[in-house]
Amino acid sequence: MISLADQLRLLPSADEVLRRPELKVMPGSGIRVQLVAWIRQAVDECRDKVRDGVVFTADELMKRVIGRVNELARLDAGRMSCSVINATGVVLHTNLGRAPLAERAVRRIEEAAGYVNVEMNLETGKRNARSERVVELLCLLTGAEDAVIVNNCAAATMMTLQVMAAGREVIVSRGQLVEIGGGYRLPEVFEVSGARLREVGTTNRTYLHDYEDAINDHTGGIIRVHRSNFSLSGFVTEPSSAELADLCRRRSVPLIDDLGSGCIQDLVEFGLVEPTVSASVSAGADVVLMSGDKLFGGPQAGIILGRRQWISAMRKSPLMRALRADKLILAALEATLEVHLSQNPMEELPLLQMLTRQSSRIRSSCERVVSLVRIPENINIGIEACESEVGGGSIPGSRLPSFAIRIAGTNPSEFSQKLRRCRPAVVGRIQDDGVLLDLRTVSDAQIPHLAEQLQSVFDGEAV
Asked: Cβ–Cβ contacts within 10 Å for residue 378, how many?
């Protein structure tokens, strides 16, 4: 009987495994240090098996190591950033990067990838304020006096609370004490900022007098918070931003309106009701907070708009250096603002195109995809009505009529995994023992690519 020491000597070295031709075509195999780490992990796992009494031949050990390295490579490939065809029907899909950028913004990012005049006026040759033009465009678009840009809306909330109300109370409705994705809880942001939370009202009903009764000598402000990913209906009452602004003016208390979603264009005619940024500014909010990557349709950013006295104080805050946006974000934001200020933002912003796309057009896209693929006999494929979502913490509870390609006759989990392994990857959703590809979130330019990836999976070429 072979001894444990002899068994352990059969374990392959990293160099032996590296010489195997099976590794040369693996995803990520060009990064030698990563490949060696996977090999060592696989060998260590085999060593543990041997020590537990499992007997292997040298060939079996090599095959086991190579198989495990292949598996680790596939797992790593699933984490690599790559282009995705979003066929989930969720327009602002947080896991897929939320809003797709306009072509103008993509080009501006490419230009900014090298040296860029992020803090220089090329006409004068002198240094200018960071994001100077972005701020100017924001004020033109929204009517705000001033603005400052940070890296996301959570940062904007924390910055605002710290600068405006550290050591003081900020009044908020109990119905707006939100928790959103990633465990982000508003009360915890209050704690970090140094502001004290003063809750008023109940979960479903908060009146104007609740806010007024809570104002005292320690009040640093009132905050109105967008509920992001849930909605209240039925026996519900809360004051409007205009009513709160009027109260704040009368009592000399600043109003912070945390809109979150950053809706610029009025979408009511498309059945989507969301407060707009300009309406909040004109209603009299002292500071308005919004995201750049939600209904604004741009890159991830936190945008703080409002009265010059508050924005100036934030710009001087020590937090500003830590939270400011980089050159690529500023470039994309600038281009997205130009789109909004243009005559036809609906034609340039992919987000707005998806939100307003007629279901009849989506059905036509489904028919086009189906016509481009050869369908195996064992696969059932059809087109059916479905519902899309806005997603991304915007217009909670919204549903958009849509159409999807339904694929049945195969294991939906395995089929979905094969689609995700395509490049570009295809991400759909599993529903009623089938795979649904909702084409509201698939652009016309992506239709041929989607058909190509479907065909590769049908032909067994995707692994």
From this structure: 8
Region 360-385: what's the mean pLDDT? 95
CATH of domain 103-345: 3.40.640.10
Do the Cβ atoms of 404 and 442 come closer than 8 Å? no
pTM comes to 0.89
* Beta carbons within 8 Å of 113's beta carbon, 6+ residues apart: 328
Q: Which two tokens stand for residue 15?
A: 């160099």
Tens of pLDDT, residue by residue over 53-84, are 888 899 999 999 999 998 888 888 888 888 99
Q: Where are the domains of the chain?
A: 4-77, 84-96+353-458, 103-345
Helix (H) or strand (E) holding 222: strand 219-225
Task: State how far the alpha carbon of 385 is from the alpha carbons of 195, 400, 401, 432, 440, in Å.
Answer: 48, 11, 7, 14, 11
The structure tokens listed for 168 are 């003081």
Quick one: fold of 84-96+353-458? Aspartate Aminotransferase, domain 1 (3.90.1150)
In order, the DSSP letters of 351-415 are HHHHHH--HHHHHHHHHHHHHHSPPPTT-EEEEEEEEEEEETTSSTT--EEEEEEEEESS-HHHH
Token duo for residue 28: 């990520």
Alpha-carbon distance 309 to 171, whole Å?
21
Please state, as a whole number, how many other Cβ atoms lie within 10 Å of the Cβ of residue 365.
Answer: 21
Q: What is the Cα–Cα distance from 450 to 439, expressed in whole angstroms?
A: 10
